Each structure stands twice: as structure tokens, then as C-alpha cells.
């Protein structure tokens, strides 16, 4: 796989299923337009697929309960700021799609009411005179000419979105069927106020209310806690229906009225490295209901990125992170802190379930593997049956096999990871690639980074050291107040295990990573420089003291992971040890990174150069923290080119 082959990374989105109608939004990077293109595809339950829409930016299909209509988002048609996504509806039997919204900043994915007539969705509404809207004088100021922002809270911005409190996310309910028959677009008024964000709408089974996630106490002060709040669908006063003791996400109702949602508990005072669990509550109108946790807090970590839970036949389907896999499991609706081994397996192995849906007895999922970026499968008693072949072009690039590695750290702790070896006899130069997070997992899905480097002749070592997700909550919390300790031991132990192979060259080893992986790269380069020939540190945390105030999440992340003692912040900062780095060192960053802000790279580069190190600084304009995963396709290719050029100089 070469850098430009990222165009072959075709990824289907969370499927929508009703009867024999199965839809998914298929997305891929497009170098010519320098954008990510997506269109809806219809997948046959017997196999094969056909075009449903032409895109170029269609997403989030939702099929009405009666199967008559398909709602989805379409962007790039000139409506809204920069063609923001707007709600469209088309007949499920086929035909033309009709746009139903014209919101300046676009809309989020629509959700059908039980009556198959109304849609609920959320959308950000900006203050007048911002983001290209008219001010009180009828002018549309450019971003640099907007009025100053008055900031009184910590939570005023977030990476990859931008400023928040001047464009709050509001709840809308739209009579879609009436709008389809109208000549003009409907006049939309939000049913939630401008005082707080709402998110993730879910209709009650009677269609009378919409439940959304709201910051606790209606966001009156900064909080990491959430409540579930019900709004009357026709407008009116909201009611807290579930008061959570932590974070809540993606509520969904079963037909019997049980409300299921994902959540993290902060009752022990920890707000980081928390396993996500499945919760249930029975709501009424007499005050908040008490929720119960259906899954074990230590062994079950739900992957909420795979979409909401799906109640079906007395069970609740969820995706669960487990040792690099994302498995599809069934949780009994009556469970109480069920451990992972007690959850029925629907799909496991070397797989990553990216989305799933069910209708009646039919269950479908989008599944990635070491050879695929995602295909649609149907799960039945005979086992998973693959319906699509979206990764054929990717496999034709000559993917290298992924080999599992296991070893132990110096203290006897088990370490798990993978090795990707290039073609040829070797001995091959080696790259130790460390993932970000840290509470995330390197997984079994095809990884473009490893494949590009292996195609260029490098063996790639990957893994999940302590601090990662997917191995139990205790594993994830093992480095709380201990960055740069046992996680380093695990990173190096896995590398040593790989280097036992005679076809790997222990004299030509480089280390690289982004975000937390960038921290680890900077830290190891200063504390174990003899192990590596060079380092590539990307979007890294290098100085905890300034991270507190400059990062969008720094005001709590640093306290919870590192602490508040200035001496500890200094001691745990790679910047403190910049003068000890004696190997060539690449500092790589994006100008618009608000998660690990640009100053983290600037300070490190200056410190390295002042200490006489062989350091370079590569800066990407217009990108945020997610450059390597979802940045502009041409920047992603340019980044790969730069990585390969760097290692060709230092590991040749």
C-alpha cells in the first residue's frame, strides 16, 4: 500500500435496516477533490449492492418505521455555510430526494418518530454576525472581523468543531411528510432553549416526547456529568427523566418503553479511563428515574463509536472493546453488572464492528478486519455472511499479514500487540508505532499506517500498553498519575519481543506516535535514546503546565491523569528532558490543533534546537488533531510522504 492508496480505504457507515431495505453510507478519501466523498448504497440481504444516491456527501440514512421513507443528510449542495449537511427525505421505493432544511451550520442525523411522519434532529444555531450570518446591521463579517467573544467558562471550545457557546446545539422536530408536500421549506423553530446543548435525540414509544442528552443541571456551570431530559414533541418545558452519575450517551427505547443508554460512572472521582457501560431505566413523569448498570464496570467496555444499542427479543446488542477487537455482544435486558464472559457472542474474532442494526430476526453489521476497512455482513445461525466487497481495491494493493505478539513486561505483566513484516528476507528496519489516547486501543482493523510503512520496507510493531482500553478498566487506569512508567516498560517489552526475530534489524529502529503516542515518543527518545536511531513525534503533549490552559480538555485531563503539583507536571513533561535527546527528532503538528495545541510543538522544537539536537519541525496548515485519520486527503498523502522520507534518511 502506497500513500495515495488511501483512496482505497472505503468505509461503510452504520447500517439502516427495515424489511429487505438495507442502506449504508459508503465513504472514501478523494484526492482529486481533496475531500472525503460519500453516497448511500443499497445492500442486498442475499449479497451484492447497488447505488442508492450519488452523493457526493450523503450520510446518516434513517428508514421510517413503516418502511415508506428514507431520511438522510446531504452536504455540498450549496445550502448553509460551505454546503453544510441538510436533512433530505426520499421514498423508500426510490425517486428524487427533497431537501427539508436550510440551516446555516447544517443539521445532525435525523431520527424518525414512531408515527413515521415526524423527524427529530439537532443543529447548531449561531449568534448573529458569526460564521457568515448577518449581524444587527445586516452585514456578514469575515471571521477576523467578528465581534470579540466574551468567555466566562472553561468549556468554550473543542477540537475539530471550534467555538461552542456562540452556536449552541438545539433540538428540532419536523413534520417531514407535510414538508414533502409543501412548495416552500418549512419554517423551523427549535424546541430547546439557547442556554445549553442537547444531543442524541430518541423518541418515546408513544411519540409524545423526545429524550436528549443534556449537561447536568441544564449546563448552568461547567460539568462532566449528563442528564437525560425529555422535551414534549410539540414544545414545552423539559423534564429530567434520568439523573446520571457521570456521562450519558445515545439513549434508545425498547418497544416496551425501557430506556437504554451508554454511560460512564464518575462516582469514584475518576473522569478518565472509565469503561463505558450499558444502562437501563424505566421513565415516567414523576421525577428522575433510577438507572441500573447492566454490564460489569471492570470487564465490559462498550464502543459507543459503533452506534446506539439495539434492543431485540429480550436482549440488547452492543459493540464491546476486547483485546484489540470490537465484538458484537448481546446483553440480557434484565442483566445486573454482567461480566464480559456472560454476554452472548454474535460476532467476534479478529474483527472490529463499526456499526450494527436489527429488524425482526435479521441482524446486520459493518465489520472491519486485518484485510478490510469495512464490509456489511448479515449474522444468522449459520454464522456471519459477508454481503459486500468494498475492500477489493485495498486488498489488490498487496496488504501484508498482521501477526499477533504476546510477551511480558519486566514486572511480569502481560503485553499484547501485533507485528507487520514487509516482503523479503530482511533484516528489516523497524518502527515502533505508539497509539494515542491513552485510553484507546490499537485494533484488528486494517491500519493504513502500518501497511504503508511495511510496503516501504519497514517492520511495524504495534500494541496496547498499560493505559490502553480493551483489557479491563484496571489496565486503563494503571498509568493514572504514572505516565512514562509501566507504559514505557510495556512499549519496550513488545519491541524486544519482535526483535527476537532474525529478520528484524535491532540496529535500525525508530519510534513514532501521535497525541499520547507523541508524548511517549518524546519521553522514550530522552530516557532511552540508545534504543532508537531517530524519532517522529506528532501532535504530542510535551509540557503539562501549559497544556492545562491551552488544550480544549487540559483543564481537567491534566488534573486527572498527571495531577496539580507543579513539580510533578515538570517531572512528567518531555520538554524537561529535551536536552537529553541525542537522536534526530521530527516535531510534527497541525496549526489548528486544539487538543494538543501548537505551542506544545513550538516549545519542544525550540528547546531541541537550543540544546543542539538534530530537530526538524513539520507544520500542516488548516488541520486539527485528527489530520492522520480524517484530514484533507492531500495532506494525509503529504504526511505519509514526509514520514517515509524521514525514515529513509535515518534508517537506511
UniProtKB/TrEMBL annotation:
Matching Pfam families: PD40, Peptidase_S9
One of the record's GO molecular function terms: hydrolase activity
PANTHER family (alphabetical): DIPEPTIDYL PEPTIDASE FAMILY MEMBER 6 (PTHR42776:SF27), SERINE PEPTIDASE S9 FAMILY MEMBER (PTHR42776)
EC id: 3.4.-.-
Protein name, UniProt field: S9 family peptidase
Enzyme class: hydrolase
UniProt source species: Amycolatopsis rhabdoformis
Every Peptidase S9 prolyl oligopeptidase catalytic domain range: 445-651
Superkingdom in the source lineage: Bacteria
InterPro entries, A to Z: 6-blade_b-propeller_TolB-like, AB_hydrolase_fold, Peptidase_S9_cat, WD40
Classification via Gene3D superfamilies: alpha/beta hydrolase (3.40.50.1820), TolB, C-terminal domain (2.120.10.30)
